[in-house]
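Q: What structure does this chain adopt?
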Amino acid sequence: MLSIAGVAAQTVLYESANSLIYRAIREADNQPIILKLLKESYPTPQELVRYRTEYRITQELKEPGIVQVYDLQKYQNSLVMFVEDFGGESLKIWMQQRNFTMEKFLQIAIATTEALGQIHRANIIHKDINPSNIVYKPETEQLKIIDFGVSTQLSRETPILKNPGVLEGTLAYISPEQTGRMNRTLDYRTDFYSLGVTFYEFLTGKLPFETEDALELVHCHIARQAVPPHEIEPEIPVIVSQIVSKLMAKNAENRYQTAWGIKQDLEKCLVQLQETDGIEEFALGTRDITDRFLIPEKLYGRETEVFNLLAAF
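A:
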C-alpha cells in the first residue's frame, strides 16, 4: 500500500499496464481524492515526461466536464498525481453492473459529447476516449472525462507507423488514422471515432470488432464495416444506430465535424423520445458546421478504386 505523508490510501481502484489508481483521503480536510502513479518502480525519462505533460494539460482544463488535478509530487523514484474524486465510477464498470434505458443512454451520450467539446475547444486531442476514461455518478448525473496521458495540444499530428502493441490509445477504440497506417494526419475527429465505438459498446454490450489479434483489429478499424447497432439489438432506434455509424466512418470527412453537431442530433433524439415515446428518423448533421478550416485528405471520384484497394488490403 502507498505511504504518502498527509494521505490515507484506501483501496486500489484500477490497475492498467502503465499505472495504478488508488482511492484515498486527504487527512488535512478529509477530502476524498484519487492517487495515480506510474506502475514501474523505475520509470523511464520518457514516461516521466509524459506524466508531467498529462498533469499540465489536465491542470489547464478548468471545464466542468474534465476531472481536476490538485498536485504532482515525487514518490520514491516515480511521480504521483493527486486527482479529484467526485464519487463516480467509469462507464466500463457501470455497463457491467446495470442496464441503461435509451433515455439514460442519450443523457449520458449528450454529457460525454459536451465534455469532449470542451476539450476540443481548448485545442486538445484526447486520443484515448473509451468507457474506462468516462466517469459517471448517477446520483448527481455528473460526468467527467479523465486520463490525458496520450493527449496532444497540436491541432494536427502525423502518426508514426508502430507495432500495434505500442500504439497510443486503447486499440479496440482507436480510429483508422490513429493506427499510423492510413497516410493521414490526425486531428480532433479521431476522438469522434473512439466516441462512436464507446457508444456502440454501450448500446449493444459488444465491441464492433471482437478479436484478440492486434493486427487483425487494426485491419478491422481500417477496412471492415461494423454491423449497425440496430441489427444486433432491434430495440435500438435506427436513427441512433445511424448516429453511431456516422461517428465510426472510416474517413474523418464523413464523420461529424463538431461535438456541437453530435450533441444537437442526440438532443433531438432525446426530445422525441420524451415527447412521443419513440424516435423517428431525420437528416443527420444539419447543424454540424465547423469553424475550423480543414483541407480534406480523401480521394474524390475514385470510389471504385478505393473500394478495391481496401478489399485487397
